[in-house]
Specification:
The chain has nine helices and eight strands. It is an alpha/beta fold. It has one domain: Alpha-Beta Barrel (TIM Barrel). It has an eight-stranded parallel barrel, surrounded by seven helices. The longest helix is centred in the first third of the chain and has 15 residues. It binds 4-methyl-5-hydroxyethylthiazole phosphate (TZP) and magnesium ion (MG). The site of 4-methyl-5-hydroxyethylthiazole phosphate has 15 residues, from loops. Its EC number is 2.5.1.3.
Length: 214
Amino acid sequence: MTGLLKDRLRLYLVTDPQLCAEAGVMNTVQRAVAGGVTMVQLRDKHAKTPERIELAIALKNALQSSGVPLVINDDVVAAVATDVDGAHIGQGDITPAEARAMLGPGRILGLSCETAQTVRDADPTLVDYLGLGPVFGTATKDDHAQPIGFDGLAGLVALSPLPTVAIGGLKHDHTNAVAASGADGMAVVSAICGQPDPQAAAGAFHSFKPEHKA
Ligand code: TZP
Ligand code: MG
């Protein structure tokens, strides 16, 4: 499972409804997957659970033939109701124990960690992967923590007992630096959402070859 999950984390698209407003989330995701995205997170801070469920079902159906996993940010109720692949939570959301109890053993649970202590506290019996960052400051998340840079990222990756995906201000010209950190994947929002050609934007990450920390 871990080997496979590491591969799925390689190019991880996090959706943003504002940035995707023109093309639409569905169209953006489909084109981005055609361009090489390996995992998708539905993230919409302002939607209510029923709207999120509707979009999640449409995305799940669209992704089915590709095998690309779909997880939902924050809303574990929606993830269970739609039977998607899993959920992603942050430090301020419900606890990993609560999320795991709702998700059951078979679904993916991701957890955002910004500090060494939160990485140390992450319980591998509950959580499947860690999102680490923000690497850089970003306008996409207004309440983000202090950026950690590539050195900070490498430090958190080294501490992690779990597969990791880096996030925050990452663009295609950061692929070598992220690979050198040992992270298994790059998670991006604005590098793909709202780009004129999401397929080409995803394709621009083709040179990313994660080194996968031993
Ligand atoms: N968590 C930490 S930074 C961030 C999230 C969801 C937003 C990253 O967006 P972008 O546009 O890839 O910098
Ligand atoms: Mg959250």
